[in-house]
Amino acid sequence: DTGVSQNPRHKITKRGQNVTFRCDPISEHNRLYWYRQTLGQGPEFLTYFQNEAQLEKSRLLSDRFSAERPKGSFSTLEIQRTEQGDSAMYLCASSLKGVSSYNEQFFGPGTRLTVL
Amino acid sequence: SQQGEEDPQALSIQEGENATMNCSYKTSINNLQWYRQNSGRGLVHLILIRSNEREKHSGRLRVTLDTSKKSSSLLITASRAADTASYFCATENRMDSSYKLIFGSGTRLLVRP
After folding, report:
1. How does the average pLDDT of chain B come out, rounded?
2. Is A12 in CB contact (< 8 Å) with chain B?
């Protein structure tokens, strides 16, 4: 399977615990995005990497959230001291920056976080 | 905050009928993309239409784009029960160097067998 993969698919944690999610993008893709989706809503942008550089972060990404993409391959999203409001589906997408003017993003299956 | 507004929020049709969903947005765009999401799953890319295109077809899908009205529509012809899902439009904004997608709130489509 050469699509975007995310692990774990589901995570249940207690309030105050730290959690880490992983995203493996399509191998030749140099752009990687994290989005968050709550029930009944469309995904909202969290952060963006071009290769290993984190170039943009949303105001939604509080200081409890950190994302990395070492070596420009897989990415991790860590949430420290989780709160019930962090419960959501966390989606990762990747794309290839090219000479074309458009940028089709391919999404992974998501990690569903439940904070008790 | 999300840019797009989709209409209707929910749509229920009989198998074989056509389904039309509309999307409005607020800023100048590079392109507009439509995605499908089955319950609790990831997003599947359906079709991308560039800002200089007015209509695009892919199988049973037809997408139109009116940049003067900042709106798009997705038509699914001859619907099937398997088309039951949520459908989202997403825009890539012209002035945004990250090329992130701004999603609407989605249309939940139910196709009754």
Report:
1. 92
2. no
